[in-house]
Amino acid sequence: MTHEKTKSFYNWEEVKGHIKTGVPTLYHSSQTSTVIPFENLSLELQASTVLGNLSTIKGHLEFTKENNLLVTGFVTWKEAKEFCRSQGREIMTSPTEELAGVLAGIATSCTGERSFGFKNLRSQIVELHYIDFEGIEKKLLADKKLVLPIDLSFYQKDFAPYKNFKNAPYPRLEVETDLMTGTEGQLGIITSAVLKTIPYEEETYLFLLLPKWEEDFEPHLEIFNAVQSFRNQIRAVEFIDSNSLSYLPAEKNPGKNQDVVFLELRSSDFEMIYENLLEKLTLVSSENIFEMASGKCRDLRVSVPRAIFEVNSRMGVTKKGTDVQVSADNFRELLKFYKSYTLLGVKYNLFGHFGDAHLHFNFMPTKDQNDFCNHELERLYTEVLKWHGSPFAEHGIGLLKKKFIAPFYHDNERIVFRGLKKIFDPKGQFFPEGFMSC
Ligand SMILES: Cc1cc2nc3c(=O)[nH]c(=O)nc-3n(C[C@H](O)[C@H](O)[C@H](O)COP(=O)(O)OP(=O)(O)OC[C@H]3O[C@@H](n4cnc5c(N)ncnc54)[C@H](O)[C@@H]3O)c2cc1C
Fold it and tell me: Which among 40, 43, 139, 378 is least buried, having the fewest CB atoms inside 10 angstroms?
């Protein structure tokens, strides 16, 4: 059932006016979040909460004199990418769902394929503007330390094991722009952002066909270990297993009941990567390595999660997927754990950001397997907590992951969340049901 109270905004003045009323609101843009069930919010949101649409606010793109990209209003990643390309430049973040909004991407601290080479979106933000609880627009800078009347020292100590993850179980809270990065719209509404860009360089996509990971993941691990020394040359190292590929029409499937790992690299680095990395692999033969055109690769990459989403919608179930990133040392353990899932008699598939040890395992349950899968996911999160892994490294917490994230929060985190809400959302109007209420 769709949520009854909805409101669309056409400019920021309307948003400011609405904020001044103090009405609790879940602001949204493209609604591609996989952790907010927009199609059925009535059970998840308080009856008084309004669903506020920001995707109706006209977007604008321009370059600053430092060649950074200024994004204002509703702009999709696709539009931002095309605009940069038209000026011979590139943005460094590339989420698979390109129709998602850039500003929403900051709110969810979205990541994607290129985090392997370019780190997370947080590191590419220069400046942000947001509207605060009084309806006043404010500026945040990435090169200014975050100063708050809250003691963050214990929070930062808890954060330390997660420093190298794309997203930790809780926001970084180190520099000013972190206030809006990954806080999922709970502290204010982002109106514009300045993002770093780089000059565009032609890319090459290389596909490696592998045996099914459920049968033998040693070739996969050999690639994983080998690519780690080439982060300056390789931009993305992605994985799609044979089960995920089976949802595609046969002509789109590059393998025959095989998994694929694909690499995105600068074309100028192709020979170096071939000689120093690919030729040295002992478990992947050269006849299983080939090049694919970028458009075809992109199409393949987007088609897989969309096809999976459609299958689940047809079954009337919400996806039971993981978003776990672990350290390189625990990657074998994670694969072993996922392998144990393949023996449960529930359909499944695995894909994701392989080079970062960040894989989405998806159960494809029937309606009566739903609770069983939830229980199995809880078992995984218990292990992830022990491994000091990140349970939700890119899709955020939203509403659906709240119960799973709760064990990752301790008094130190809850005290900071309460403090932030008191300062930045004293009326409790910014997505009051979000993870800070855990
Ligand atoms: C097929 C598929 C593939 C995906 N691949 C990726 C991926 O590779 N990487 C990734 O990170 N995610 C991915 N996602 C998840 C999703 O696309 C991201 O979470 C995305 O950032 C959500 O953007 P949106 O515009 O749809 O936001 P919405 O779903 O509309 O909103 C998401 C959240 O952002 C907040 N928000 C939105 N706009 C603002 C604003 N202006 N100010 C403050 N808060 C705001 C909302 O309150 C909400 O909490 C994928 C989703 C799908 C369906």
Answer: 43
Residues 195, 213 contacting (CB under 8 angstroms): no
Which residue minimizes the CA distance to atom 46 of ligand 1?
28
Q: pLDDT tens, 378-413?
A: 999 999 999 999 999 999 999 999 999 999 999 999
Q: How many helices (H) and strands (E) does the chain have?
A: 13, 18
For 286, the token pair is 């050269």
Torsion over CA: 242, 248, 249, 252 (sign): negative
pLDDT at 96: 86
CB 358 within 8 A of CB 338: no
What does the pLDDT read at residue 231?
96
Q: Which residues line ligand 1 (CB under 6 A)?
A: 26-34, 36, 54, 95-97, 100-101, 103-105, 107-108, 110-112, 184-185, 189-190, 305-306, 309, 394-396, 431
Best residue among 39, 97, 187 to mutate for probing ligand 1, ranked by most atoms within 8 Å of CB: 97
Asked whether the beta carbons of 352 and 129 are under 8 A apart, the reply is: no
Letter string b/e over residues 167-196, b meaning 16 or more CB atoms within 10 A of that residue's CB: bbbbbbbbbbbbbbbbbbbbbbbbbbbbbb
pLDDT tens, residue by residue, 305-327:
888 888 888 887 777 899 999 99
Of the candidates 154, 186, 190, 182, the one whose C-alpha atom is nearest the C-alpha of residue 166 is 182
Domains of the chain, each with CATH number or no CATH: 6-199+414-437 (3.30.465.10), 203-387 (3.40.462)
